[in-house]
C-alpha cells in the first residue's frame, strides 16, 4: 500500500511539473520576452497578466500550491532516490543527477524571485514593470544569478518533460525515448533562448 501511494505521489509530482508549473514557466518567460520589443510592450503584456480577474486566487491555486507540493516532494526525492545505471545508462543517470541539482537551484531562485518581485513590492510602492526588472538586472551579480536560475528552471522543466513522458507511459520503447530526448533538448534550447534574451534586454538594453 505504501509503495502504491508513493508511486501515485511521484506520478502527481511529474504531472504538476509539466501542468501547470511547466506551462506557467513558458508563459512567464514569453511575457518577459516582450521586453525585447520595448518597454511599453513589456509593460502592456505584464499589465494584462496583472489585471486578470481573480489573479491572486489563480496564482495560489494554479502556481503556488503546485510549486509547493512539487518542491516538497522533490526535496524528498533528492535525498532518497538512487541512480539506476542498469536501466537507463550513463547519459540518463547524468540527466537524473542534473535534475536533482537544478531542482534545488530552481527552488532557491524562485523563492528569491518571488520575494524580490512580489513581497518587496507589496511592502513598498514599486510597480512590477520594466523599470523594476531593469533595476534588478543591471546589477552584474543579479544578472548572472538570474541567468543561472532561468537555465536551471528550463533544464529542470525540459528534462522533467522527458521523465513525464516515460512515467505516464507515452514513451516506452528505446526509440521513442530517444526521440523524446532530442525533442526535449530542442525545448530546452528554445525556451532558454526566450528567457536569456529578455534578461540581456533588461540588463543591457539590447
From TrEMBL:
<protein>
    <submittedName>
        <fullName>Succinate dehydrogenase cytochrome b558 subunit</fullName>
    </submittedName>
</protein>
<keyword id="KW-0812">Transmembrane</keyword>
<dbReference type="InterPro" id="IPR034804">
    <property type="entry name" value="SQR/QFR_C/D"/>
</dbReference>
<keyword id="KW-0472">Membrane</keyword>
<feature type="transmembrane region" description="Helical">
    <location>
        <begin position="12"/>
        <end position="36"/>
    </location>
</feature>
<dbReference type="Pfam" id="PF01127">
    <property type="entry name" value="Sdh_cyt"/>
</dbReference>
<keyword id="KW-0408">Iron</keyword>
<feature type="transmembrane region" description="Helical">
    <location>
        <begin position="141"/>
        <end position="167"/>
    </location>
</feature>
<dbReference type="InterPro" id="IPR016002">
    <property type="entry name" value="Succ_DH_cyt_b558_Firmicute"/>
</dbReference>
<feature type="transmembrane region" description="Helical">
    <location>
        <begin position="56"/>
        <end position="79"/>
    </location>
</feature>
<keyword id="KW-0349">Heme</keyword>
<feature type="transmembrane region" description="Helical">
    <location>
        <begin position="100"/>
        <end position="121"/>
    </location>
</feature>
<dbReference type="InterPro" id="IPR011138">
    <property type="entry name" value="Cytochrome_b-558"/>
</dbReference>
<dbReference type="InterPro" id="IPR000701">
    <property type="entry name" value="SuccDH_FuR_B_TM-su"/>
</dbReference>
<keyword id="KW-0479">Metal-binding</keyword>
<feature type="transmembrane region" description="Helical">
    <location>
        <begin position="179"/>
        <end position="204"/>
    </location>
</feature>
<keyword id="KW-1133">Transmembrane helix</keyword>
Amino acid at each position: 500500500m505504501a509503495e502504491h501511494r508513493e508511486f501515485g505521489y511521484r506520478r502527481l509530482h511529474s504531472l504538476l511539473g509539466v501542468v501547470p508549473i511547466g506551462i506557467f514557466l513558458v508563459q512567464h518567460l514569453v511575457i518577459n520576452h516582450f521586453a525585447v520589443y520595448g518597454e511599453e510592450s513589456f509593460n502592456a503584456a505584464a499589465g494584462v497578466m496583472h489585471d486578470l480577474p481573480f489573479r491572486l486566487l489563480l496564482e495560489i491555486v494554479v502556481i503556488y500550491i503546485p510549486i509547493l507540493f512539487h518542491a516538497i516532494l522533490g526535496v524528498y526525492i533528492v535525498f532518497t532516490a538512487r541512480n539506476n545505471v542498469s536501466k537507463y545508462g550513463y547519459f540518463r543517470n547524468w540527466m537524473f543527477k542534473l535534475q536533482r541539482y537544478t531542482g534545488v537551484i530552481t527552488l532557491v531562485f524562485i523563492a528569491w524571485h518571488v520575494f524580490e518581485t512580489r513581497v518587496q513590492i507589496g511592502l513598498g510602492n514599486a510597480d512590477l514593470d520594466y523599470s523594476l526588472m531593469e533595476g534588478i538586472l543591471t546589477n552584474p551579480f543579479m544578472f548572472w544569478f538570474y541567468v543561472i536560475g532561468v537555465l536551471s528552471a528550463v533544464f529542470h522543466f525540459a528534462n522533467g518533460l522527458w521523465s513525464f513522458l516515460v512515467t505516464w507511459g507515452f514513451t516506452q520503447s528505446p526509440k521513442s525515448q530517444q526521440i523524446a530526448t532530442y525533442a526535449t533538448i530542442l525545448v530546452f534550447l528554445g525556451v532558454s533562448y526566450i528567457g536569456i534574451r529578455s534578461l540581456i534586454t533588461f540588463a543591457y538594453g539590447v
